[in-house]
Amino acid sequence: MARLDVRCKVDLPVNILFDDPNKTKGHAEAKFTSLSLGGGFIEGLPPHEENKIIGLKYELPTYGEFEILGEVLRSEEKGVAARFYNLNRDAKFKLWDYIRENIKDDISCPYCGHKNAQKLRRCNGCGWSLNFYSQDYIIEHEKESFINRLAVKSKFFTIEDIYKILNFVDVEVLKIGKSFDINEEFVGSSHRMLNVFSLIRKVAPLDIPVLITGESGTGKELTAMAIHERSSRRHKPFIPINCAAIPDSLLEAELFGHEKGSFTGAHKQKIGKFEYADGGTIFLDEIGELSPSLQAKILRFLEDKIVEKIGSNGGKKIDVRLIAATNNDLKTAIEKGMFRKDLFYRLDVFNITLPPVRDRGEDKLILARYFLNKFSREMDLRKTFSSEAIDAIKCYDWPGNVREIINKVKRAVVMSREYTITPDDLDLEVMALKMEEVSSLKEVRYNIEKQKLIEAMKYCNNNISKVARILGISRPSVYSLRRKYNI
Ligand SMILES: Nc1ncnc2c1ncn2[C@@H]1O[C@H](COP(=O)(O)OP(=O)(O)O)[C@@H](O)[C@H]1O
Ligand SMILES: [Mg+2]
Known about the structure:
With 487 residues, the protein is an alpha/beta fold. It folds into four domains: 8-146, Thrombin, subunit H, CATH 2.40.10.220; 184-353, P-loop containing nucleotide triphosphate hydrolases (Rossmann fold); 357-427, Helicase, Ruva Protein, domain 3 (Orthogonal Bundle); 432-485. It is 42% helix and 18% strand. The strands form five sheets. A six-stranded antiparallel β-barrel has the order 1-2-3-6-5-4. It has a five-stranded parallel beta sheet with strand order 8-11-14-7-15. Strands 9-10 form a two-stranded antiparallel ribbon.
């Protein structure tokens, strides 16, 4: 495989700073005998452990002095090979100019060693540009070799790292969905939430219906917004409607509109939400609450995309993406004959299930801290959680999910008189009590264990094998318990 960086032979003094186990700071005069943008070989440096970080101070003739960090890759008899860290753009470009001046051999390719009989623009062996004196050479080479560099590091990535990197590329580099920064607004790093983010990214551009399920307050509406903001419809309206919040008698008019005089009280024509959402997305929350007649109307819309106002003779073609959400089990509703099976299958083309907060592990605390910072900033206050508050946040089940975290944290920021927020400020004092019980349980267990060991030792005349047998544990365990309780 070709190298990623041109390496050249040099003879360049370098001052090394390192942590010495005996002294506080070690120091050595050594020299680079080879150098590339990625690292170099340092002769005269005593052996160092792999991965050890060292400070490197060197002066490039005519370019000045530089101080960078290096990581020991391997130690040899003659010296140490190191990889460079934190080379900023300026240091990198100057180093490149220096390296370029020191490439003496213009017959072999400095990347792969292939003998190029004459100077070519590209190596016949590895294909990389050899046009070293072009002004843009280094930028072009950095771009060309980027994927290879990443490939070298990628074996250290976890799946979470990969999601974060892809998300960073989308949001920060390509500015996709920058107006809705999924990283900032949609908090979560648990495995299950990372999966949700990945589903959002996957389904957003597909323009198909989505069914979002999850308990109240888990972020169903936020998910629908995230899908809309990442779709080609993002510059068109996103219209959310909570089907459970509007009386059934009014919901049809709300969704589909009505003609003037179509019923008593219809003094003028009304445009429905579907029509408002034309080109964009409509989000029907609590879809399980729809009446049978509205279920039929929505089904018709999904089939032919035609919206018919109440009291009108014809319909109008509308281009709307439908995202629906429910916090109850639609399959049971179907079994009970409360929800149409055919509508369910039309909606459930792609399903995203939001886990309850109690199943999101560390996300509980991450969410609480996120909202603490947010509200503190907004209210221009500086607040932090006490360690008891952190324990209480972790122990509590949060049945109201993220919405409950928001409410409790907001209340705590307002209510707490001190810099530190207590479980009481969070209205989680019950939890604090529970935790006391947990620690007293520990005590109970400690006392019983000790008591039983004393009794068994007496009963068995200190015969360890017998003690182990009657307590049902191994002999080493008996010894370790004796040490623990000092018996
Ligand atoms: N993962 C999350 N990160 C940040 N805020 C969230 C998250 N999930 C939900 N929220 C916020 O919590 C509140 C409730 O979310 P919402 O989407 O209305 O839940 P649902 O529709 O499931 O009841 C909203 O203010 C929303 O912005
Ligand atoms: Mg909701």
